[in-house]
Design a protein that fits this description.
Layout: E1 20-27, H1 32-37, E2 42-44, H2 46-53, E3 59-68, H3 77-82, E4 87-94, E5 105-110, E6 122-132, H4 140-158, H5 161-164
Antiparallel strand pairs: 1-2, 1-6, 2-5, 3-4, 3-6, 4-5
This protein binds flavin mononucleotide (FMN).
């Protein structure tokens, strides 16, 4: 059976509890995101997850994200070019039923190809909407397909003026701050 999913989600502008703003350190996950899925994720620290979980259900969310690398290696051209950039993101909050995790995690996939990891960096996220609940899958392929669809849904949903404007929110650091 093929189920179709909407390619755009949420009302014309974010409504309560959104926007949800969180920041935290990028911590090590199980490392499966890059290796098994080809979809790297930045795992948020426990403290950041605590702020989030009071307000929202587990599931997949979309919004904007920024990485602020304190140990910025200024000789690294990629770091320099990406400083202060705000990227679209999809975030999975929950237990990863496919992998049967025993600990809840918040994993952010930033929709951009980075040349290196950023463990220890500060991650700032503005969550603007909900995409779907977490699911179990009969194959890794099915999980990867659904995540790729989540990415399209996030990009379509952010491409509306009232969502796009959060890219310039004061919560994100800028070269003016
Ligand atoms: C957008 C997105 C959607 C996801 N949806 C699911 C899901 O429905 N079910 C699930 O078990 N895991 C889901 N995941 C989590 C992946 O299984 C997880 O990122 C992977 O296990 C890598 O985790 P690790 O970096 O801690 O190893 C999703 C991840 C992302 C980024």
């Amino acid at each position: 059976m093929t189920t179709t999913r909407p390619l755009i989600v949420g009302p014309e502008e974010p409504i309560s509890p959104y926007p949800i703003k969180l920041k935290g350190e990028v911590v090590q996950g199980f490392g499966r995101g890059s290796k098994e899925l080809g979809i790297p994720t930045a795992n948020l620290s426990e403290d950041a997850i605590k702020t989030l979980c009071h307000d929202v259900n587990t599931g997949i969310y979309f919004g904007w994200a920024q990485i602020n690398n304190n140990n910025n290696d200024n000789d690294n051209k990629d770091n320099k070019d990406n400083e202060y950039r705000v990227y679209p993101m999809v975030m999975s909050l929950g237990w990863n039923p496919y992998y049967k995790n025993e600990k809840r995690s918040a994993e952010v996939h930033i929709i951009h190809k980075f040349s290196e990891d950023f463990y220890g960096a500060e991650l700032r996220v503005i969550v603007l909407g909900y995409v779907r609940p977490e699911k179990d899958y009969s194959s890794l392929d099915a999980l990867i397909k659904d995540i790729n669809l989540d990415i399209s849904v996030a990009l379509n949903s952010l491409d509306r003026t009232s969502y796009n404007t959060y890219k310039d929110d004061d919560f994100f650091l800028s070269d003016k701050s």
